[in-house]
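Reviewer comment 2.1 asked that we show a complete input and output for one of the modelled complexes. We chose the adenosine-5'-triphosphate case, as it is the one discussed in the main text.
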Amino acid sequence: MLLQVDHVFKSYRRGQQVLKDINLTVGNGELVGLVGESGSGKSTLAKVIMQLEKPNKGTVLFQNQAITKHNRTSFYERCQLIFQNATAALNPTWTVRELLREPLQHQLSVNDTYLQTMLEKVKLPADILLALPTELSGGERQRVNLLRSILIEPQLIVCDEIVSSLDRLIQREIIDLLVTLNKERDMAILFISHDLKAVSYLCDRIYVMKAGEIVDESYKEQNRFAFTDSYAQRLFQAIHHT
Ligand SMILES: Nc1ncnc2c1ncn2[C@@H]1O[C@H](COP(=O)(O)OP(=O)(O)OP(=O)(O)O)[C@@H](O)[C@H]1O
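Response of the prediction step:
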């Protein structure tokens, strides 16, 4: 198994249980969705997976090994987090070239030709290398952010609400780009979002979270998901009527 979240519990200082006995897996090259309404604990789970928050109980395993401070660096080479606020993720004083080169520091072979090939992949023009983040549109910034994370060729990317602030057309472009990356590189994706349409389109399997618990899970069959939990059913019923 590529990623395994095993019986994870988390509460913040105020004491409220934000994650209650979470079990979740992502297989090699798998497209997995995690949905749930605002406050259900999705971002907290992403942070626990990425070792940015410590669980009170439970373990996160990557390639069947618990992540510890000793193997964390190699975990980050294989698993990358991309989050919603692309503006905050990008240092405003760096050009796109500097931003893209930074994660590749120890790979001396990286030249502009390679970066340009990669820019083409995410449909960004070559002259964008000289631009500053403030000179880019929201969609362009998110693409730069995404490109930064995929340049090191991770086996898994955890996307936390990465398309929510973008308009539908650009959302679709970013999602299609994720599909391509998944197909071409067998890169697995854990796609966290409250946008059920986007998740249903992209993912092969979806987990539904409610108040800190995973209440249901379903595989896509004939382009549809079949949930058994009544809350999950109600959530997904709504999208068929919009
Ligand atoms: N750093 C923190 N300290 C204390 N409480 C927090 C912290 N981060 C999140 N919480 C609380 O944990 C709960 C879950 O928040 P979380 O951000 O994980 O939910 P979410 O499902 O990602 O929501 P959204 O879709 O709105 O981002 C909320 O009640 C929130 O107030």
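The CA atoms of residues 87 and 141 lie 7 Å apart. We note this here for comparison with the apo prediction described in Section 3.2.
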